[in-house]
């Protein structure tokens, strides 16, 4: 396990926590963007999401159509940019302006300015998201940092259109690495599958369905890290 810890885009909490997390990730944005193991986790998320969405929404890939996609806590935007073949409108949101700057530079260099844009989050609770707008919302390695994960999860699923999906990713089996390298755990620690199950059930919304939870391993230069991808559907009623 590497000392490179790829998952912490930012910290979510009160005003002081927001400022502290924003400063930290502004300072480390370039380092994070260049981190090999972080990139490997992004590739896993991209590969999973491409395969999943092509299976559940094949009609979206007809000529001239695509999906409206949001990545919440996008960091340098490697996940949402990797989905460009799906996307008609792609928005990456992050607390750290320097992360958004890297994301926007990548948008320009890839010639995707017509379909992608970045947005710096002004609040840390997902309350800025529009309701029932996106076909797909991504929340990779971020939900554990939110001070009220249940409220944030509710706002994330509310941003999804009926028949759309929220895909959450978390790292798993990190105790040994965290102890060895004194890695901070985020607000609540990493969210295991059972914890996300509980959050979803606690929302008591009848139109939400757990579609699947899949475990996988990302590797880079002989180092590896395990992750969980958890898919929620907002069922049309």
TrEMBL record:
SUPFAM superfamilies: S-adenosyl-L-methionine-dependent methyltransferases
A Pfam cross-reference name: Methyltransf_11
Domain Methyltransferase type: 70-168
InterPro entries named in the record: Methyltransf_11, SAM-dependent_MTases_sf
Chain residue ranges for the region called Disordered: 1-27
Organism of origin: Rhodosorus marinus
One function term, GO molecular function aspect: S-adenosylmethionine-dependent methyltransferase activity
UniProt name for this protein: Methyltransferase type 11 domain-containing protein
């Amino acid at each position: 396990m590497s000392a490179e810890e790829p998952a912490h885009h930012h910290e979510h909490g009160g005003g002081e926590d927001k400022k502290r997390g924003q400063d930290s990730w502004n300072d480390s944005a370039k380092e994070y963007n260049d981190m090999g193991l972080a990139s490997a986790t992004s590739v896993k998320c991209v590969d999973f999401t491409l395969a999943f969405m092509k299976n559940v929404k094949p009609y979206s890939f007809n000529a001239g159509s695509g999906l409206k996609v949001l990545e919440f806590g996008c960091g340098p935007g490697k996940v949402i940019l990797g989905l460009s073949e799906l996307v008609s409108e792609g928005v990456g949101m992050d607390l750290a302006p320097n992360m958004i700057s890297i994301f926007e530079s990548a948008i320009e260099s890839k010639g995707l300015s017509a379909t992608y844009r970045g947005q710096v989050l002004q609040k840390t609770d997902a309350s800025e998201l529009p309701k029932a707008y996106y076909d797909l919302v991504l929340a990779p390695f971020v939900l554990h940092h939110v001070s009220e994960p249940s409220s944030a999860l509710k706002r994330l699923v509310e941003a999804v259109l009926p028949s759309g999906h929220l895909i959450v990713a978390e790292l798993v089996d990190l105790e040994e690495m965290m102890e060895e390298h004194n890695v901070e755990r985020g607000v609540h620690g990493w969210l295991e599958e059972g914890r996300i199950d509980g959050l979803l059930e606690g929302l008591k919304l009848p139109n939400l369905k757990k579609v699947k939870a899949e475990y996988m391993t990302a590797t880079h230069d002989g180092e590896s890290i395990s992750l969980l991808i958890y898919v929620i559907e907002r069922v049309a009623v």
